[in-house]
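User: Predict the structure for this protein chain, please.
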Amino acid sequence: MKSSASQPSEVNLSEHDGVRHLHLGTEWVQGSMRIDAPFDIELEYVQRMMAWLLFVPPASVAGRHAMQLGLGAGAITKFCHKRLRMTCTAIELNPRVADVCRAWFKLPAEDERLRVVIADAAAEIRRDEWLGTVDALAVDLYDDEAAAPVLDSAAFYADCRRLLTEDGSMTVNLFGRSASFERSLARIAEAFGERAVWAFKPTREGNAVVLAQRTPTRPKRAALQAQAEAVQARWGLPASKWLRVFKPIEK
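Assistant: Here is the predicted structure, written as structure tokens:
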């Protein structure tokens, strides 16, 4: 999603080996869906955006509120809505992206548990109605070239923190092999506190997911392992593998 007042990007599709991809006017992939499994999460880094599940009892997930900033192909919103049975809000600047998600990426129609808001994320998340209501916030805001996050200031991350419930978490997609990664990590730590921040090693494609908790916790390794196994068994996410490459940034 592009978060600015500029002309909305052209939206294009491609397909390869049974996977449909979303593009915003360039060859860069902005989201993907396996056509015969539309409510699964196809991309590895997007699966890792669900790492907040490691900190929430599985039985309590249904009915919580998930918010996605930057709809892309809607993978997180669809998974949270269909598989986790959560209440979901997606904030997307480009109305064409939302239209394409509905037509080509199986985004369900809006109902009492699913709302798509066409708005600039930076302004929308400051609205009082959202404050303290979000249990799982997914931030994936990139421009057409997917070169750097569009919203990446300490002030923006502080606004994100204010959205969260006391046991809520934010996950953010960053490029782990770029020079901007450490700057982004520092800004998240400034907003949340270093003890609240966890990070994955980059995927093969270079995406590094960072998680920040509204209220920092440090579960013991055995408890995290048991939680990961429960997440994997219940929802099919490769959560046990996550623990090999997922660590708090402050020891």
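The chain has one domain: 12-248.
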